[in-house]
Design goal:
By secondary structure, the protein is of the alpha/beta class. It is built from 18 helices and eleven strands. The longest helix is centred in the middle third of the chain and has 24 residues.
Length: about 400
């Protein structure tokens, strides 16, 4: 693409950590000019050491890179009158104000939704938060491990009943899912503004994101049904929907929802034709009635064959199944590479590193991935764009408004 879908859209981002900054990065991927405002001491996420991808990596901070790629950074003291004036100048020419500061902090800064929209009625005011903007916990701190995974029900439903403690969430799962929803909401608000000339307030919470993620379980709970927790393999009302173990300890996942459609071809591919006409398994109802016996028979067949042999056999039929892969295998999966789901970021000195690409593509092309800015890297450039001269910039430096 020569022009991104958000080309010409200016986003002022006042946010830290992962959830809302990732939404800004998604917009930047597709052409938005995202100006990220950081405190003089920087986003605390810059100092996080985790999984060998943050400050503990010894090179590029990949955590920051993923959440802030393609943006510009200005460091600003918003507690000062002059710093707030600079922010207002930025908002005066912006299309979107993007933030994850809590309601109380925004009100203290004079940046509550009503105050900002009174001054800038065409602005899209987008905020991400832990628990929503109303209710007793609206101002309660919330990371995705707490608001999304714990309170949002995922820790409960994904933990096998025999465990004494819930399983731990993988890094920033809720943050990145919430970011996709927030970017979608911003896109919708921009479209609405194009049609009506009016800005909107866009809200996405981590709690609501968790509930959307667990919609199937929520439907059960809302209608009085039992919500089943993680139970390993669980029961098999359809033995052709489940995971099977190969002779060398690997696994494949079968998702043959229309089991009668696939049963015969599956048995032939796996080399167990004798099961096709076994009266216990002859159709979907029979397999459900004799589920334990059918699973035991298939366990025996899979257990005779290596993972490679099973994958090769299943590849001969047109059916929904997949190998259970490690993340290390995933990053070099031929399908991932063919579709550009991982991209390379090139630094000025020629060094490169790899990042996951945004899952949205336009015209069958992934976006060009650009590096994240250093703390306050574009402060002077942005101020010059706003019409400040170098004398004024030096005054702001001397006053401690900018670094």
């Amino acid at each position: 693409m020569n022009e991104g879908a958000f080309e010409g859209v200016k986003v002022v981002e006042l946010a830290q950590w992962v959830f809302v900054p990732v939404a800004g990065a998604l917009l930047a991927d597709w052409g938005a000019d995202v100006i990220r405002i950081e405190k003089l001491e920087g986003d605390p996420y810059r100092a996080l050491a985790s999984q060998g991808i943050g400050t503990d990596r010894g090179g590029v901070n990949l955590s920051m890179a993923l959440a802030n790629r393609g943006k510009r950074s200005i460091a600003l003291d918003l507690r000062s009158e002059e710093g707030r004036a600079v922010l207002d100048e930025l908002l005066d020419s912006a299309d979107v104000f993007l933030t994850n500061l809590r309601p109380g902090a925004l009100e203290r800064l004079g940046l509550g939704a009503d105050a900002v929209r009174d001054r800038f009625p065409q602005l899209v005011y987008a905020r991400g938060h832990g628990y929503g903007v109303r209710g007793p916990d609206a101002d309660h701190a919330g990371y995705d491990a707490s608001a999304f995974f714990a309170r949002g029900g995922l820790a409960h439903v994904l933990t096998p009943t025999e465990r004494d403690y819930p399983i731990q969430q993988r890094g920033a799962m809720g943050d990145r899912n919430g970011a996709m929803a927030l970017a979608f909401g911003i896109a919708g608000a921009l479209l609405r503004r194009h049609r009506t000339g009016k800005g909107s307030v866009v809200d996405v919470s981590l709690l609501a994101t968790a509930m959307w993620t667990l919609s199937s379980d929520l439907l059960a709970a809302l209608n009085g049904a039992e919500v089943r927790r993680g139970e390993g393999r669980g029961s098999f009302p359809n033995p052709l929907v489940g995971t099977y173990r190969t002779a060398d300890g690997r696994h494949v996942s079968l998702v043959f929802l229309q089991s009668d459609r696939y049963w015969a071809d599956f048995c032939r591919a796996l080399g167990c034709e004798h099961l096709i006409d076994d009266q216990r398994f002859v159709d979907h109802g029979s397999r459900a009635e004799n589920g334990d016996a059918c699973v035991a028979a298939l366990d025996a067949e899979f257990g005779k064959r290596s993972f490679a042999d099973v994958v090769a056999a299943l590849a001969t039929i047109d059916a929904p199944w997949a190998p259970v892969q490690s993340v290390e295998e995933l990053v070099d999966d031929p399908q991932v590479l063919a579709n550009g789901y991982v991209g390379d970021v090139e630094l000025d000195g020629g060094e490169t590193y790899r990042l996951p690409a945004v899952p949205v593509q336009f015209d069958e092309q992934p976006p060009e991935l650009r590096r994240a800015p250093e703390h306050g890297e574009h402060t002077e450039a942005v101020l010059l764009e706003l019409g400040h001269d170098w004398d004024r910039i030096i005054e702001l430096k001397t006053a401690g408004v900018i670094p």
